Amino acid sequence: MAHEISLSNSLDVTNFVVHEGNGVKGLAEMNIKTLPDQYIQPLQERTVSMKTNSVVADEDESIPVIDMADWDRNPKVAESICDAAEKWGFFQIVNHSVPVQVLEDVKGATHRFFALEAKEKRQYSKKVSPTNNVWYGTSFNPQAEKVLEWKDYLSLFYVSDDEATAYWPSVCKDQALEFMKKSEFVVKRLLEALMKRLNVKNMDETKELLLMGSKRINLNYYPICPNPELAIGVGRHSDMSTLTVLLQDDTGGLYVRKMADDSWIHVPPVAGSLVINIGDALQIMSNGRYKSIEHRVTANGSKNRVSIPIFVNPRPSEVIGPLPEVIERGEKPAYRQVLYSDYVKHFFKKAHDGKD
C-alpha cells in the first residue's frame, strides 16, 4: 500500500481508518504486526484469553438450537421459542424456510462490498452519503469510544424498495433486500408465538407496526487482527431492537452473557442457521419477561469474518412501554413509556459499554 502512516501516531491512524475511509480492513491489509494503541482493550474487556482472564467463558454450554421444520404440527416449537426468550434471550433456528442460497448470496455480497476501493466505500460514509439511511463506518461510535472496535460495517435502513434501489450500493443491494424479504415470514411467526405467551391474542396491523414497523440491515466485516487477544470485534451491548435476526459465517466469535452466572457462552456457527435475539424494545414491551442480553464479538487472528444482522424495530414515532395485555393481568409496569426515537438517539450517543 502506497499510503504510509505512523502506527504510533493515534491521529494518523484515526485519520487513515475513520476519515479516509480505509477502515480496519485497510490497516489489516498493511500486514501490521502489532495493534495500534487505540484498539487495545482494557484487561476486563478482553475475551480471548479465556483461561487467564477474569472474563470467564463456558465452552461446554450453548444457547438453544430450535428446529422449526415441524412448527405447524408440533406446539413444542412455539414453547421452546418462548422459553429460550425468557431464559437465554438468544437462540438459533434451523429449517426456518429462508433458502440457503439467499444466505450464501448475502454473505458473498458483504465480501464484495468490503473488497471495494476505499474511495468507493467512502462515498457512503455518514458525512457524504446521499441519504441518512445508508452509512459506511468503522467501530461503533469513534467519537464516544475510548477504545475502538476491530470492525467495519455498512448500515442500511429500509424505507422502501424504491429508496433502496436508488441509494443502496449496487454490489450488495439486491442480496441484502432479498435476505430481508425472505426472513420477514420467519420474524412474523416468531413474534406471533412470543406475543401469545404475553396474552396478545392476535397480531393485527397496529401490533405488527409497533413490533416490526421499521428495519435495518447491517453488513459487518471483521478483518484478521494482528493481536486478537488484545482487541474486540464488538464491545458488550444489548440490541435496541424488538428482535435481531443474525446470519453469521462459519468463523465463530459471538459470545452471549449467561443470565445465571454472568459467564460468557460462545454461539457456535451452525450451518444454515439464523441466530435470534431479543432486543431492548421487546424486553420493555414484555415487561421484562423476555430478556435482551449482552453480547460481544471477539477479534480473530486467522480469518476474515462477516456477519449480517437484521434489526427488526418499532417505528421511530412509536411510544413503547409494557403492553396493555401484560399489565391487564395485574403485573406492575417495570418500565415507563418512552418515544422509541429518543431511545435510539440515546443508544447511538454512547459507546458499546454494556447494558445500562
TrEMBL record:
KW Chaperone (keyword) present: no
Pathway(s) the chain acts in: Phenylpropanoid metabolism
Any single biological process term in GO: coumarin biosynthetic process
A Pfam family that the UniProt record links to this protein: 2OG-FeII_Oxy
Molecular function GO terms recorded: 4-coumaroyl 2'-hydroxylase activity; metal ion binding
Family named by the database record: Belongs to the iron/ascorbate-dependent oxidoreductase family.
Protein name stated in the entry: Feruloyl CoA ortho-hydroxylase
